[in-house]
Design brief:
This protein is an alpha+beta fold and 210 residues long. The chain folds into two domains: 121 residues, Jelly Rolls; 32 residues, no CATH class. The strands form two sheets. A five-stranded antiparallel sheet has the order 1-2-9-4-7, with no helix packed on it. A five-stranded antiparallel sheet has the order 6-5-8-3-10.
Length: 210
């Protein structure tokens, strides 16, 4: 009887192990989908799929917002595909800013490595703003989907590393969503309460039309 029970448990254990898939390295040669990339064949997976060196290089901050984000998402780092995690590097030149934006697919944790960063988010329930100046070693969390921002609060460059609770966190920057498109200015004026001159100026700066 005891031998029969042990045999049954060994079969269950074997089947359980057989069903476990340790990882799903993304096959970047195939289309992406809301569920992520399809898995590479195990024979094609190498250690390099689980290593990403891009966050050691500073991003180009000579942009309109004087900021650069270097992502290590599934599209750049196939080893995180399906694991529910990813990272990015944030470089902010003096006066640099990441405008109000949201990550529809992930919560975010930011840790300041260099300089000072003013960061905050707005709650969706009562529009309350939570913001603080962060210094080296400080960490702040931004709940999934909420509008948030980062501003260089010091006189020198600032650096932070960011982690996300998804390999594909998504990104929508509010300013670009409103003014870097072909939505007619008349509509934007109505939904933002800005006048025609302000809307057209912002469209001109951010590349929008109409």
């Amino acid at each position: 009887m005891i031998l029969s029970i042990l045999f049954i448990f060994s079969l269950i254990f074997s089947f359980s192990n057989a069903a476990v898939q340790d990882f799903c390295v993304g096959d970047l040669g195939l289309p992406d989908s809301p569920a992520g990339y399809l898995c590479k064949k195990p024979a094609a997976v190498t250690v390099n799929d689980f290593v990403f060196s891009g966050l050691g290089v500073a991003g180009n901050t000579s942009t309109l917002i004087k900021a650069a984000v270097t992502p290590a998402f599934a599209a750049q780092f196939p080893g995180v595909n399906g694991l529910g995690i990813s990272m990015a590097r944030l470089d902010l030149a003096p006066d640099g800013v990441v405008p109000m934006h949201t990550h529809p697919g992930a919560s975010e944790v930011l840790i300041v490595i260099q300089g000072s960063i003013c960061a905050g988010f707005i709650s969706s329930s009562d529009n309350k703003v939570y913001f603080k100046s962060l210094n080296k070693g400080d960490i702040m969390v931004f709940p999934q989907g909420l509008l948030h921002f980062q501003i260089n609060a010091g006189k020198g460059p600032a650096l932070a590393f960011v982690s996300f609770s998804s390999p594909v966190p998504g990104l929508q920057i509010l300013d670009f969503a409103l003014f870097a498109n072909d939505l007619p200015s008349e509509i934007i004026e109505k939904v933002t309460f800005l006048d025609d001159a302000q809307v057209k100026k912002l469209k001109g700066v951010l590349g929008g039309t109409n």
